[in-house]
Amino acid sequence: MRKKTIAVDMDGVLADIETQLIEEYNKEYGMNLSKEGIQGLSEEEAFKERALLHRILNKGNFFRNLPVMPDAVESLQELQKNFEIFIVSAATEFPISLAEKVEWLAEHFPFIKWENIVLCGSKRIINTDYLIDDHCKNLDYCMGKPIMFTAFHNINKTHHLRVNNWKEAVAVLNETL
């Protein structure tokens, strides 16, 4: 019998991009943004200096040094017992991130095989039973069941099943077995 499949986004789901992005943005722009202060804002509203944002995201080692989201490693290990896990990242927007993301995954998630890592431009082609992502632009096209991982920019979105953390994600997915 085939295991059900889960596609898991990286940035904002496995990797805590918010913390590092806010820190770098504040340092570069002299701002005082905080996680609490950007809740409910779109990425464009939170990070108004778009050129600076793109410069930060294209800086070497930005993606390589992101912190791991709490409980992410243990949660994927647990889910892997009953599901086939694919890591899916729309990484080609920031080409420097491609090798960094592969290295980051090898360090933090060595139990994910290279065959189960998909670095792409658009996630519309992903056909898994579930997609865990923080962006509606990806979840809206999900061919399976979309699961929205809470992030500052999606707090006010309500049209997908929401999980606030990895413990909730595991509970929701284990209910489907």
UniProtKB/TrEMBL annotation:
Gene3D superfamilies: Deoxyribonucleotidase, domain 2, HAD superfamily/HAD-like. One of its GO terms (biological process) is pyrimidine deoxyribonucleotide catabolic process. GO terms for molecular function: 5'-nucleotidase activity. The active site is at D9, D11. Belongs to the 5'(3')-deoxyribonucleotidase family. This is 5'(3')-deoxyribonucleotidase. It comes from Flavobacterium nitrogenifigens.
